[in-house]
Automatic annotation (TrEMBL):
It holds the Pfam family HTH_3. Residues 20-73 form the HTH cro/C1-type domain. InterPro entries: Cro/C1-type_HTH, Lambda_DNA-bd_dom_sf. Gene3D superfamilies: lambda repressor-like DNA-binding domains. Coiled coil: none annotated. This is Helix-turn-helix domain-containing protein. The lineage of its organism: Bacteria, Pseudomonadati, Pseudomonadota, Betaproteobacteria, Burkholderiales. SUPFAM superfamilies: lambda repressor-like DNA-binding domains (SSF47413).
């Protein structure tokens, strides 16, 4: 199994594509049947399975049509491992990202 922590974006896309294809085949679905269930084109399913290329919305629709939505539940969940991280996570929920400074703020010397 591919370790996503050391993989490139293309490798992860290929791995996810292979997993989706395996799920489809396990359920005995043709690409056209899955496309119909997902509300996407057959070309979208083919591209997704071939190289992992898709919009995120199409990916979610295919995942839903395969009944794999629960597998998305843990994607991008913030894991808190210390009290400091918990406090930082709480602040992040209440705050915006810091703004970039406008210019250098240094006064220009007079001539």
């Amino acid at each position: 199994m591919l370790d996503f922590g050391f993989a490139t974006a293309d490798e992860i896309a290929q791995e996810l594509a292979a997993r989706l294809r395996a799920a489809r085949l396990t359920q005995g679905l043709q690409q056209s049947e899955l496309a119909l269930r997902a509300g996407v084109s057959a070309g979208t399913v083919k591209a997704l399975e071939k190289n992992g290329q898709s919009t995120i919305t199409s990916l979610i629709r295919v995942v839903q049509a395969l009944g794999l939505t629960q597998d998305l539940q843990q994607a991008f969940v913030l894991e808190v491992r210390s009290i400091a991280q918990m406090e930082q996570a709480q602040r992040a929920q209440r705050q915006r990202a810091p703004r970039k400074p406008k210019g250098s703020g240094a006064a220009k010397p007079e001539a």
